[in-house]
Amino acid sequence: LFPFSQSGNSFHVFDQGQFAKEVLPKYFKHNNMASFVRQLNMYGFRKVVHIEQGGLVKPEKDDTEFQHPYFIRGQEHLLENIKRKVTSVSSIKNEDIKVRQDNVTKLLTDIQVMKGKQESMDSKLLAMK
């Protein structure tokens, strides 16, 4: 269902339907192949696309191949290097928060300046009355 490639640096899922039905429920709370692929992507695995003579080679029937630089047959010690990726969305949110804080600080400064101008205008108006 999912043997290593001959080189040992990738693995195959030959029958996605059977894999989803028989293997995924044993290790996950689902049997959804798309969810499994999404999990693989979160941990840095990539789908292997074969290119031959300028065109894509159509894979055998239902064969899907995945690889990761630290997922190599016989190299179990490398597995500890496979970690869930930190999404860039969180860093964007942190940047947004900093920008928002800067905007709030600028708004508060602008309000203070406007208050001062308003007080000045009020006192001038009072003097004119």
Architecture overview:
The protein is mostly helical and 129 residues long. It folds into two domains: 1-85, Winged helix-like DNA-binding domain superfamily/Winged helix DNA-binding domain (Arc Repressor Mutant, subunit A), CATH 1.10.10; 86-128. It is built from three helices and five strands, in the order βααββββα. The protein has helices spanning 16-27, 33-42, 88-128; strands spanning 10-13, 46-47, 51-52, 55-56, 64-67. It has a three-stranded antiparallel β-sheet with strand order 1-5-2, with no helix packed on it. A two-stranded antiparallel sheet has the order 3-4. The radius of gyration is 29 Å and the shape is rod-shaped. The protein starts with 9 loop residues before the first strand and ends with a helix. The mean pLDDT is 84.
Low-confidence segments: none
Please describe the biggest sheet, giving its number of strands, its sense, and whether it closes into a barrel: 3 strands, antiparallel
Briefly, what CATH class of the largest domain? Mainly Alpha
Query: Strand content of the residues, in percent?
Result: 5-15%
